[in-house]
């Protein structure tokens, strides 16, 4: 399941809509990125996202904070961005460090600017099929499944991982599309027996090659949402690809769709805040 080509189409559409927003309002959509510290992977991710913004006609504002930044200072920084009318979307690059209350920092993002879908308001919207922004990786995964015409209705989906910004929201999005969802985690007993029964398996545990080929039902759809050092996913691609009907590679699968979703939702946020109506809005996580 190649994520590069569909992501490119989403970004091209976002660029067209960003141009429409600019023409109608005189303002280009603006994404603010906040980075605490200088973790090499995080620095690379932020740089890549800002480069994609530029290509899509989205302005980016980068806020770099020292690793010594505390929760209160980070919350104040994000709150200021939330109240800045020239900023339409906010991305807090995570992780932020063990000394920071990450949830408090996420909750400082105004819901209308939560284009990364990390607040409890966004999770509630995903869970109840309301207007809001999807968590970007889960939203990108759903968009990728749609691109490949994967029918989720009635299918058994095993989500391996229950993080607040990936596993849990993805389960809600799949459930909204009438899949039967099983959440798996570190306390799950006999995990392979569950994944072998699943029509769709999503790996989001942050452990390299955690799921093996004999953990997969023949013909299943396998989504690898992991990224580990050395461009290694959470799925052993070589063995799993021999059994899966469809499978995402790492890199080139989920990652491009995550960034594409972020940019598309930033344009939607700008359009909503500025009161214009560009075509091809992106509320694809609605339950209906």
Automatic annotation (TrEMBL):
InterPro entries: Aminoacid_DH-like_N_sf (IPR046346), NAD(P)-bd_dom_sf (IPR036291), THF_DH/CycHdrlase (IPR000672), THF_DH/CycHdrlase_cat_dom (IPR020630), THF_DH/CycHdrlase_CS (IPR020867), THF_DH/CycHdrlase_NAD-bd_dom (IPR020631). GO terms for biological process: L-histidine biosynthetic process; methionine biosynthetic process; purine nucleotide biosynthetic process; tetrahydrofolate interconversion. Gene3D superfamilies: Leucine Dehydrogenase, chain A, domain 1 (3.40.50.10860), NAD(P)-binding Rossmann-like Domain (3.40.50.720). CDD domains: NAD_bind_m-THF_DH_Cyclohyd. Keywords: Amino-acid biosynthesis, Histidine biosynthesis, Hydrolase, Methionine biosynthesis, Multifunctional enzyme, NADP, One-carbon metabolism, Oxidoreductase, Purine biosynthesis. Residues 135-273 form the Tetrahydrofolate dehydrogenase/cyclohydrolase NAD(P)-binding domain. One of its GO terms (molecular function) is methylenetetrahydrofolate dehydrogenase (NADP+) activity. Its EC number is 1.5.1.5, 3.5.4.9. Pathway: One-carbon metabolism; tetrahydrofolate interconversion. Residues 1-116 form the Tetrahydrofolate dehydrogenase/cyclohydrolase catalytic domain. It catalyses: (6R)-5,10-methylene-5,6,7,8-tetrahydrofolate + NADP(+) = (6R)-5,10-methenyltetrahydrofolate + NADPH; (6R)-5,10-methenyltetrahydrofolate + H2O = (6R)-10-formyltetrahydrofolate + H(+). HAMAP family: THF_DHG_CYH. Catalyzes the oxidation of 5,10-methylenetetrahydrofolate to 5,10-methenyltetrahydrofolate and then the hydrolysis of 5,10-methenyltetrahydrofolate to 10-formyltetrahydrofolate. Homodimer. This is Bifunctional protein FolD. It comes from Streptomyces kasugaensis.
């Amino acid at each position: 399941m190649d994520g590069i080509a569909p992501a490119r189409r989403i970004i091209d559409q976002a660029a067209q809509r960003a141009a429409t927003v600019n023409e109608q309002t005189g303002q280009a959509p603006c994404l603010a990125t906040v980075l605490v510290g200088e973790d090499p992977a995080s620095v690379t991710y932020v740089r890549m996202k800002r480069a994609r913004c530029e290509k899509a006609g989205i302005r980016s504002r980068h806020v770099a904070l020292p690793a010594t930044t505390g929760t209160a200072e980070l919350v104040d920084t994000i709150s200021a961005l939330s109240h800045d009318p020239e900023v339409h979307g906010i991305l807090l690059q995570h992780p932020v460090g063990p000394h920071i209350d990450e949830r408090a920092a996420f909750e400082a993002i105004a819901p209308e600017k939560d284009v990364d879908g990390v607040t409890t308001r966004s999770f509630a919207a995903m869970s109840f099929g309301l207007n809001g922004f999807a968590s970007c990786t889960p939203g990108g995964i759903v968009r990728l499944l749609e691109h490949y015409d994967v029918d989720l209705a009635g299918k058994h989906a095993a989500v391996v991982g229950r993080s607040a910004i990936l596993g849990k929201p993805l389960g809600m999005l799949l459930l909204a599309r009438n899949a039967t969802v099983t959440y798996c985690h570190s306390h799950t007993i006999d995990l392979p027996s569950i994944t072998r029964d699943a029509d769709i398996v999503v790996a989001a545990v942050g452990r390299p090659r955690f799921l093996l080929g004999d953990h997969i039902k023949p013909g299943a759809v396998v989504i690898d949402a992991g990224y580990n050092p050395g461009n290694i996913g959470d799925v052993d691609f070589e063995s799993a690809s021999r059994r899966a009907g469809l499978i995402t590679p790492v890199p080139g699968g989920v990652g491009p769709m995550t960034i594409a979703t972020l940019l598309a939702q930033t344009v939607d946020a700008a359009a909503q805040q500025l009161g214009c109506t560009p075509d091809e809005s992106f509320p694809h996580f609605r339950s209906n």
